[in-house]
User: Fold these one by one.
Assistant:
Number 1:
Amino acid sequence: MKLYTYQIDNDGVDRIGVECAGWRGMLWPLEAFGLKFANMHDLITHITPAQLSRIADAENATEGNALRLNSVRLRSPIPHPEQDIICLGINYADHAVESARFHEQSFLLNREKATYFSKRAYETIGSGDPIPSYEGFVTELDYEVELGVVIGKDCKKVSENEAPNYIFGYTIVNDVSARNLQTEHNQWYFGKSLDGFAPMGPCIVTADEIAFPPALDISSTVNGELRQNSNTDHLLHSVAEIISELSQGMTLRAGTIIATGTPAGVGMGFTPPKFLKKGDVVTCEIKGIGKLTNTVE
């Protein structure tokens, strides 16, 4: 099933909705199943397996309460993460090549171990929300479609075999980046953490819907032009490896978001680069999850 955070008529009230298998385009308010959680993080942290099973079947919902998905304003599924997003750098081989070509000192090749960094995300934005251009400050605005992994329960020192048991679900993250800040400061945190640089959504697909390890077509377009086109099966460091390695030294709390890296085709990878400008429409898509679309303003 797919879980959404949404608002009705832009009333400022975040609600949780469920799109059940076999009912594409229909959204049931969580309350229709007799459940209520303060927000998606609260749901991830406290929902029981029995409750998850209940909301997966539309037959368990109160009749007459379904909404059309296209009639609501979609928010990021987790609008206010409890912690920064954990990100993977250079986790597709073809992206490593294009990154080093753009700025070799900032994007080193031949790293045997995973490269981790964090992305400040006090607030993530949803599909349909604008990406700020920061005109005069950001001169090289870029996009990065990534598979987002949402941790479902606290984990510490788990093995790769155990890792799938700790995944709540998957989403799409656009790791928007200011390349000029990234290279000028010779670190990634600032250039990837400006307000509005963490589009996420349109939903969370629960882990039971996607075979593990996830091998999903992943792509991005800018104004309809295909830019990135790959598959998550090409990750250099797998989802299981990432969760296991991180958990050896830190507790991954329920609700933690991990952005697993981006494939080739980002703006800086072209010659000359194709950076974003005002009015550009960026659509990130992962098969089985959906589309995340944002316009630069």
Number 2:
Amino acid sequence: MNDPVDHLSSADAAAVEALAAAATTTDGVSPFGEDFLLRLRGGDAVHWLIRDADALIGYAQLAPDGSSELAVTPEYRRSGHGRALLDGVLERRPDARVWSHGDLAAARELGRARGMQVIRELLVLGRPLGQDDSTAPTLPDGYRARPFVVGQDEDTLLAINAAAFAHHPEQGRLDRDGLRARMEQAWFDPSGLIFIEDEGGKPVAFHWTKVEDDASGTGEVYVVGVHPDAQGRGLGGPLTALGLAHLAGRGLRDVILYVEGDNTPALATYARAGFTRRAVHVMYALGD
């Protein structure tokens, strides 16, 4: 295994993306989350690479906050490469928290062998989209919806997001650079980022949808944020329905979302909207 590096060449970034694609085909779930994939081509992170001759067969990334993800090319698994990557991460940062997307059996085995415990669950919920979802909901009196305006609303979005997710380990840290990186992605659609404004015209909540591939028929409830000052006013349900109406209007047949396993209010809102559990991602850390 190579010594860790602070940045990847374009060729290495492309090789990691190819490794991720191969793992996704085999496992049915990507080994890397969005933030980790964005940091392949820029951003603060530490990277480990394992090669067989010139081929990349294993990769791990350690983010500044101590979160980590790793993957091994399917045909090179069960050969100690995953353990080597994990040991490299933990040697660098013993308090690292390591994601296992899909809670795969091999990851559970590796975690247990290293004495790690599950400390967090991120649930994937989903449901079909039907004709009824195409109808925009009625908002509480005094509120109206409008789409995001590029070049005007960036600071507003970041302010609501920071307040709504002040205690969230990832989402609450979204900054200008992170927002810009997402707006530069092919999937970004300002019409699918919907604000709710109060009677004074001040945005107080947003529903950001995401569609990576229209041909898949699946969209995503990417982020739903309500400013704390506007919580408890009956906006959660209509805000969710606004995004679903947008996705249904694009002809999509299914929708998914990610939610923390211990977020009881959000789970209740999504249950009322017909969402059920599809998958789970877990985070491991060394036990005491």
Number 3:
Amino acid sequence: MKLALYSAQKYERAAFSAHCPSNVHISYFEAPLNAHSAPSCQGFDAVCVFVNDCLDTHTIDTLAQQGIGLILLRCAGFNNVDLAAAKLHGVKVARVPAYSPEAVAEHCIALMLTLSRKTHKAYNRVREDNFDLNGLLGFNLHQKTVGLIGCGKIGSALVRILNGFGAKVLVCDPASPHGNFELVDQQTLLARSDIISLHCPLNDQTYHIIDEAALCAMKPGVMIINTGRGALLDSKACINALKTGHLGYLGLDVYEQESELFFKDRSEEILQDDVFARLLTFKNVLITGHQGFFTQEALSQIVQTTYLNLEQFAKGEALENEVKA
């Protein structure tokens, strides 16, 4: 089997090469997969892509013309894949449904604690021999109400951690099983939560689920955490709420236009995204570059599951992690 891996990072090259089966020949492409780069997959059996690769109708048309039979997602989300187009061409799609829910859940807590206790500001102060505590006043997670919109594997892992902090957990997810939380509707969650964390998939129903109306329904000073998908949140609406002070804290590991920014060193470039640049000006906004998944354990699971998906395809077996239209 010949596999083309797109949007390849150095850490992925090392991890995938170290565990590559003897019957698989893997080639790495630093460029993302999209309609422009799709012709480069000629001669391969399968492609492996990540969250910001664009698998739209045009891209999949080209993949099918080049003889690609399998799209391997080395992530859980599949909103960037036109599943109807894949089905039309008989191209199978498989994902990594759960590489490490705890990794993302723990990153949520890191964002919450950094924002609430201002440890990033304290770190910089101490390095400059400034030990003044003024401006660093935080708040406890204990007894705070934390609302989770979506409660799959990551949300469930976060619930367990929040229970340990003694937080009151609300969940809005009709598909969620019972747990150590209170199941509520979205409006109740927005109105009662001190912290809101997003863990739902991105689709037509959840696009900009946090918009101007949702923000207005929240408590003044609320904290929002998004480690899901960037387009769950309307960035411009958040900027307006940050300017008025109604949105008290914002922690992002994802961004709606991140495909033009993340996973590259752009320190020598002029930032062209005015919305992102405005977000960076707020002292109560913390942004990380889609690293919530990035732990040793998660990367190992991504590699193992991706090769499992490829092996099942090569043998003509049913794909246990297949995504269907």
